[in-house]
Amino acid sequence: MARKGMMVGDSEHTIQNDMLQIGAPAPDFALIANDLSSKSLADYLGLVKIISVIPSIDTGVCSAQTRRFNREAAELNETVVLTVSCDLPFALDRFCGRKAIGNLETLSTHRDMKFADDYGVHDTDWRICQRAVFVLDRDNVVQHAEYVPVIGEEVDFDAALAKARELV
Questions:
Q1: Are the C-beta atoms of residues 164 and 158 closer than 8 Å to each other?
Q2: Residue pair 102/83 in contact by the 8 Å Cβ criterion
Q3: Per residue in 76-119, pLDDT tens?
Q4: Over the stretch 139-157, which tens digit does the pLDDT of each residue have?
Q5: pLDDT of residue 2
Q6: Quick check: 132 and 155 in contact, CB under 8 A?
Q7: Is 86 a catalytic residue?
Q8: Between 60-73 and 157-167, two packed helices, what is the crossing angle to 10 degrees?
Q9: What pLDDT score was predicted for residue 51?
Q10: Are the C-beta atoms of residues 18 and 160 closer than 8 Å to each other?
Q11: What is the 3-class SS of 66-120, one letter each residue?
């Protein structure tokens, strides 16, 4: 199922699939880590998860979102922060090295876009992810979901971080 869901300039882009609902089990994933290994929800068993989804690490808002969550991750207990995009793992790794990103993990859905489809963030017009943030509890149930309707707008950091802290 496709829906109109993200403004890019004056155009409304098509987003594949429905939005995740609070209280629903989060779909599992197989994302590519910077070292080309595969990561799934099982790799973060027992942790609260903040999943920060960005269109591309090489844009100002996406870079700022990743840097902000990296700073915040240093203060979070029993929580992992994952930044997901469809950028190649090599680009994500290069960005992390240049910006001293070490408190969160960057992961790519580039190979098959399945994460983007399952989480309802796949912009099929540009083959990127809609900006979003999810907070999953220790049992991988969605406790917070925000889909940003305009590509250049930021997520509500405070709401996502407050929910993650509440779950610890």
A1: no
A2: no
A3: 999 999 999 999 999 999 999 999 999 999 999 999 999 999 99
A4: 999 999 999 999 999 999 9
A5: 80
A6: yes
A7: no
A8: 30
A9: 98
A10: no
A11: HHHHHHHHCCCCCEEEEEEECCCHHHHHHHHHHCCCCCCEEEECCCCCHHHHHCC
pLDDT number for residue 87: 98
Predicted pLDDT at 4: 77
Instruction: Give me the sheet containing 2-8, strands edge to edge.
Output: 2-8, 11-16, 122-123, 128-129
- Separation CA 86–CA 16 (nearest Å): 14
Q: Are 143 and 137 in contact (CB under 8 A)?
A: yes
**Angstrom distance (rounded) from CA 136 to CA 145:** 9
pTM, two decimal places: 0.97
Residue 118: φ, ψ to 5°: -65, -30
Confidence of residue 129 (pLDDT cuts 50, 70, 90): very high
Determine the longest span between alpha carbons in the chain, in angstroms: 42
Q: CA dist 44 to 64, 72, 131, 139, 158, Å? A: 24, 18, 22, 10, 23
* 50-77: pLDDT as tens digits: 999 999 999 999 999 999 999 999 999 9
| Angle formed at CA 81 by CA 84 and CA 87, multiple of 5 degrees | 20
- φ and ψ at 100, to 5 degrees? 55, 45
